[in-house]
Amino acid sequence: MDMSNRFNKNLNKIEVSMIRQFDQSISGIPNILKLTLGEPDFNTPDHVKSAAKTAIDANQSHYTGMAGLLELREAASAFVKEKYQLDYKAEDEILVTVGATEALSATLTAILEPGDIVLLPAPAYPGYEPIVTLVGAKIVEIDTTTNDFVLTPDMLEKALEEYGDKVKAVLLNYPANPTGVTYTRDEIEAFATVLENYPVFVVSDEVYSELNYTNEPHVSIAEFIPDQTIVINGLSKSHAMTGWRLGLIFARETLAAQIIKSHQYLVTAATTASQFAAIAALTKGKNDAEPMKVEYIKRRDYIIEKMTSMNFKIIRPNGAFYIFAKIPVTEGRDSFAFLQKLANEQAVAFIPGVAFGKYGEGYLRISYAASMEVIKEAMRRLEVFMEQYGN
To answer: What EC number is given for this enzyme (predicted)?
Structure first.
């Protein structure tokens, strides 16, 4: 019996992420250097690992409550209060999730219905649209390419007015993947001034909040419009804990009470040992990202210098660990074909800009979450390729 036509029809509208597709397609090339995935090359801090080991040895291997360990939620509450001036009650305004991805899934599943529209500044991380599509809602992208990838209040208000009552949510991500763009306090406050006039959720993906390279600290939009905002965060980027799968949702009690329902039926609760590790990360290790930032800035500046000399156009990123560069080639060359050729001829891999949507075409994304040794060799190979390829 053929059951292939019995699946959710919305699955036909989504595919495996092109980031993963491309990464897998070039992984078999001998001696390939991959600056592709957004995974820190640093190891999880030792004190975080020790906390998990202690918990395991103490037989902390049972379910926690659905919202996560209260001690962890208390640590998360104190962390965002100190770092970002946010006030969230540990008891009923913070949820512990299986990574920021599950936090997004639980949130978007809870707030969206078929026919709803979600506004998303683009180019954007491709993990949002499939979740929205599966529940029958729709992403509408706001093109930021004409403004160096920076969303403006006017762009936002124009989209809100154009799509009207169909807009259920605005999805912000900053510092941004893939562009590294982030926003000042004044810019965030200006967005809030627009959004407070509309009955829309603001889903704010701030998972790169600790990787902010400006002279002022990260500013969450939840500081200005907390009743509308659902903040997504986690420890994968800030504490080099991708494999621990530990995310966080911050939302007012009335919102969190609904989101926990979808969270419960997706995962029940986050992994217990990871939660004990997270307590250490958010308390003793609350500044663990600082030495990583020093290295990331060195790597960023090195890549910008090298690639600018090769005629790539780069908007200097102020956060995350990505370079989003415009490819300096003749008309008609697409980013996927360009990077396949680069990988096959020079054994170095970046991610095609088209993986981040139609507004990313013509660009490439480099993850500088790799050692300086690897980055230097990758730049050398790219330079050889560009000399041969012609620009």
So the answer is: 2.6.1.-
